[in-house]
Amino acid sequence: MILYVLICMLFNTLGAQDVRTVSQVSVQERKSIIIPCWYNQAYVNNVKYLSFGDYWTFSNYVEFSDGRRKHETISVSDNKTTNILTIEMRNIQQSQSGKYWCGIDGPKSHIGIEFNLKVTADIAGLYVQNQMLAGLEAGNVTIYCYYHLPKKTGIQWCKLAGPCVLESGGLLDGALVNISNNNGVVSVNMSKLKKENTGWYWCSVTDLQMPVHITVSTREQTTITTSFTRTPMTTFSQPTSSGTIKSTRSFTSAQTPLFSMGFSDCDHAVQNLASVAKKYQPKESPSSSQR
Ligand SMILES: *[C@@H]1O[C@H](CO)[C@@H](O)[C@H](O)[C@H]1NC(C)=O
Ligand SMILES: *[C@@H]1O[C@H](CO)[C@@H](O)[C@H](O)[C@H]1NC(C)=O
Ligand SMILES: *[C@@H]1O[C@H](CO)[C@@H](O)[C@H](O)[C@H]1NC(C)=O
Ligand SMILES: *[C@@H]1O[C@H](CO)[C@@H](O)[C@H](O)[C@H]1NC(C)=O
């Protein structure tokens, strides 16, 4: 019981705020996927890793952000500007289904957050055709999230480690979001795009999420050649739109217990302590494998 309390305290205080990712992703066998994990700036210089296993403490290292394992199909890269760790998994096999952890290595900072990967033989429960999309400043981009699920509740579009917009639509960091849902496709239309909207998002249907990256570029290139009569600022300045939509009700925090942290299900953890002991497989120390 003491251990249970300690685990909950540790993960609630460190894990919840400091690393965030999606909670459950489905992918079809032999396809590829990119999973982003956001981390607090405090850990920018720590080595990050991906590990595999039901329990973080006992999970096995798969790859590190310095690529030391030279994994053939999984690469982990750390963007220190955006504080985002991206995990790219290629040619995924059924045996790779299960629980993964985005972890931060360091003497005092043992922090990890889990995500579940469901590898399906047939079509995945929720997928996109392309995870990397682009749009222009003041323009729009539409994300199509396809689902093959019996239920279609819980539709939302969220910024990774940020706010969400529900099916009714609304504003997200100043961009206008319209979500429609027809024939197994959730279409998320983001318009009035700003440069700051660049980043990782995820669409969600039921308990599945799918990460999507959006890059918003400026129209500078176009403007330079056509700006003899109009200045760039005038051409592309946008009216402030915060007064046009009353959307407070459509916001929800991404930091619900479901998505916010790894060891959130403490009751579950304690129930399984017995089986943890049985499965005990110590992780080799990352620093020792560095040598
Ligand atoms: C980090 O992300 C920024 C913004 O998306 C991008 O411009 C930059 O190239 C990335 N850096 C690396 C090392 O991937
Ligand atoms: C939305 O984007 C499309 C293609 O990217 C473009 O043709 C259209 O003009 C844009 N609409 C607005 C209102 O920006
Ligand atoms: C969202 O898009 C749908 C379909 O294009 C449209 O019917 C609806 O009016 C739009 N909603 C908003 C709030 O713009
Ligand atoms: C997305 O919204 C913009 C602005 O309302 C609109 O011009 C564009 O046609 C929409 N795109 C799609 C694919 O519905």
From TrEMBL:
Example GO molecular function: transmembrane signaling receptor activity
Pfam family, one: V-set
Keyword Metal-binding annotated: no
Keywords: Membrane, Signal, Transmembrane
One annotated Gene Ontology cellular component of this protein: plasma membrane
Location(s) in or outside the cell: Membrane
Domain Immunoglobulin: 22-120, 130-217
Family matches, as InterPro entries: CD300_family_receptors (IPR050671), Ig-like_dom_sf (IPR036179), Ig-like_fold (IPR013783), Ig_sub (IPR003599), Ig_V-set (IPR013106)
SUPFAM superfamilies named among the record's database cross-references: Immunoglobulin (SSF48726)
Signal peptide: 1-16
Transmembrane stretches, start-end: none
Matches recorded under SMART domains: IG
Protein name: Immunoglobulin domain-containing protein
Organism encoding this protein: Cirrhinus molitorella
Lineage of origin: Eukaryota, Metazoa, Chordata, Craniata, Vertebrata
